[in-house]
Amino acid sequence: KKVALADTVYIACMNGQWDAFQRTSNKAKFLWDDQLTDYAKRDAYHFQCGWAEVDEVYYPLNIGSNHWVLVQIDLPAHMFTVYDSDQALYDDACVEQAMRPMMKMLPYFLLNVEGVTDRDDLDLTTTTKPRDFDVEGYLPM
């Protein structure tokens, strides 16, 4: 499988859009910052595959400002998997709350990334709304 990595800057920028995204009535028309959409496009200079070419994206997520987990996005399956080295630190509800912005925003974000909407293996239906991403589980690292 081809994979891409997202860093903390990308996740911080996405999470920074959460309040504005929630206030937007027509989420499909949400205006994404070009810097965010450019992030998911191919960047050969930094050896980054474009998200139109990958099956999975991995990124670090900080929960409660003091605990890092690894998140795997399975794009075709619309699924997040959270890898956690200390599952006793935060319960599932807390982890899911930290994941909620990406779960809700990612389908709409992908509609704005060049090439991603052309993929046959992604269900990004726009007639009503894109399908949300789900959290599959919290696995130990």
UniProtKB/TrEMBL annotation:
Keyword flag Cell division: no
Domain called Ubiquitin-like protease family profile: residue spans: 1-141
A GO term for molecular function: cysteine-type peptidase activity
InterPro entries: Papain-like_cys_pep_sf, Peptidase_C48_C
Family annotation (PROSITE patterns): ULP_PROTEASE (PS50600)
Pfam families, per the entry: Peptidase_C48
Keyword set, alphabetical order: Hydrolase, Protease
Stated name of the protein: Ulp1 protease family, C-terminal catalytic domain containing protein
Taxonomic lineage: Eukaryota, Viridiplantae, Streptophyta, Embryophyta, Tracheophyta
